[in-house]
């Protein structure tokens, strides 16, 4: 683990639901390198480095207002560290 | 409604800082008396930050929405005879284990986070603990409500709370949590918030919920994901609290390292029950324990998290390499223990089907055909001859994790592992180096363990015969326990699925 061969992964697991569909699309749009795995009931999204969820993109996809706190309704789990969570975006990345 | 809204950051600051005050006529040490004796030094509680920036209004709004969604599903489940849509009645055994083993822990967590919501010095930390306390109560209630749907049709679910306090395999989760509750507040946070909620939670909940989804259990899947959405907040608290303690004072580092070491192994041993559930109790498998361990523990934690913690001088947990070695066989060893002692359990066990044995050969190519397939084939032969194998007698338990001593030497599945320590002239037994190390750090604590087997021999469990003990456990002999193939659950399931026309009353 000392050699640090590649950029560490971060990710989120979302419920595989109608509500999450627009979110998944928004995350894919803002994070083109994201790798998507479907498990029973779950959509697992992983990416090297960092993952961003932007309010504007989500609102465009949903066609309605969306506040970042609402992300709690869809999230099942995540890996990494929530480095930012404000009115406009959520950023997940390792700090060090 | 045109009034300008405060930003999330500002609302959170007003709630968690502005509403707080410094006590002046009472010594702060008397207001918060429990946050010093563990040796953790905190200089500035204001440095505490909660990335979720939750406020009361948004907390209540979203929690209410989550509950509404869940209860709509539970209604639909009951009205649509959802219990008939499972892959197989055998699946319900994993729910029995969950309700008996995990739900009471949620309630204990509710109580203890309520205590922390009063006793931590910093208002941000207190508010996070308050939200978690309410969450944990919600989880307790929603789990009971959801799984009670099955109690109408299946055995083993009627007496889970009393069982949690008394039954041998449930002393494993109970003693784990009691160990945390009886530690100081900072050790509890490291144990439960960091080690359990951040480090290990994905291994517990995600396979459980995906397993429910894959096995047609809509109700459990929904409560699981509903609870899990809170869990991501708890994970954040866990990581935040660890970093906060590490950043406050360098003297905290060795104390925390010890706790990380201890609680990794404590949690990992507890997850042995999850490993058995994943590989054996789900009729349709989502992934093997080994795959889950590689994904969630090795990839996400050891390769993701620990390089981050290295920055603070924290290294990966002691004994983690033994857990990595055990991924090749741990689930088989635990389920074999459950299989042979299930005459005294409130769930049923059985030999895996041929398809399952083949699946395991594929999932565990290094160990399964060599060590465990022959065991199961022999058990099946005995069962077919009307001689279902149960272990006669009571097992020796590990003094620390309280699991019967059925684990092998690391990397050598054919040799039983036994470690011992002497303390005050007595000998104590352990299943592993990890459990022995934990005991040796705090022997005064672990000599007090309530070991179910010792308690039976001392006459504290309703009597000395099996029927007396089962009665004291609240297990109905022949209904809740033993072999699945001859159980009422199986007979009912077959009756419900014969396709016969039934009508009227």
Notable characteristics:
heterodimer; A: 96 residues; 4-stranded antiparallel sheet; B: 505 residues; mainly alpha; two-stranded antiparallel ribbon; 61% helix; globular; monooxygenase (chain A); Monooxygenase (chain A)
Helices and strands in order:
The complex is a heterodimer of chains A (96) and B (505).
Chain A: E1 9-15, H1 18-30, E2 35-39, E3 42-48, E4 50-54, H2 55-62, E5 75-79, E6 82-85, E7 89-93
Antiparallel strand pairs in A: 1-3, 1-5, 2-3, 4-7, 6-7
Helix pairs in contact in A: 1-2
Chain B: H1 8-18, H2 28-31, H3 56-79, H4 92-101, H5 103-119, H6 123-151, H7 160-166, H8 171-181, H9 185-214, H10 218-248, H11 252-270, H12 272-281, H13 289-310, H14 320-326, H15 330-341, H16 354-363, H17 368-384, E1 408-409, E2 412-416, E3 419-423, E4 426-430, H18 433-441, H19 443-446, H20 452-457, H21 466-473, H22 488-496
Antiparallel strand pairs in B: 1-2, 3-4
Helix pairs in contact in B: 3-6, 3-10, 4-7, 5-6, 5-8, 6-10, 9-10, 9-11, 9-13, 12-15
Kindly describe this structure.
The complex is a heterodimer of chains A (96) and B (505). Chain A is an alpha+beta fold and 96 residues long. Chain A has one domain (9-93): Monooxygenase component MmoB/DmpM (Phenol Hydroxylase P2 Protein, Alpha-Beta Complex). Chain A has helices at residues 18-30, 55-62, and strands at 9-15, 35-39, 42-48, 50-54, 75-79, 82-85, 89-93. In chain A, helix 1 (18-30) packs across helix 2. Chain A is globular, with a radius of gyration of 13 Å. The two termini of chain A are 14 Å apart. The model of chain A has no long low-confidence stretch (mean pLDDT 91). Chain B has helices at residues 8-18, 28-31, 56-79, 92-101, 103-119, 123-151, 160-166, 171-181, 185-214, 218-248, 252-270, 272-281, 289-310, 320-326, 330-341, 354-363, 368-384, 433-441, 443-446, 452-457, 466-473, 488-496; strands at 408-409, 412-416, 419-423, 426-430. In chain B, 61% of the residues lie in helices and 3% in strands. With 505 residues, chain B is mainly alpha-helical. In chain B, strand 3 (419-423) and strand 4 (426-430) form a beta hairpin. Chain B has a single domain, classed as Ribonucleotide Reductase, subunit A, CATH 1.10.620. In chain B, the strands form 2 sheets. Chain B has a two-stranded antiparallel ribbon. A two-stranded antiparallel sheet of chain B has the order 3-4. At the A-B interface, strand 1, strand 5 and strand 6 of A face helix 3, helix 9, helix 10 and helix 13 of B. Chain A: It holds the Pfam family MmoB_DmpM. Chain A: This is Monooxygenase. Chain A: Keywords: Monooxygenase, Oxidoreductase. Chain A: GO terms for molecular function: monooxygenase activity. Chain A: It comes from Pseudonocardia asaccharolytica DSM 44247 = NBRC 16224.
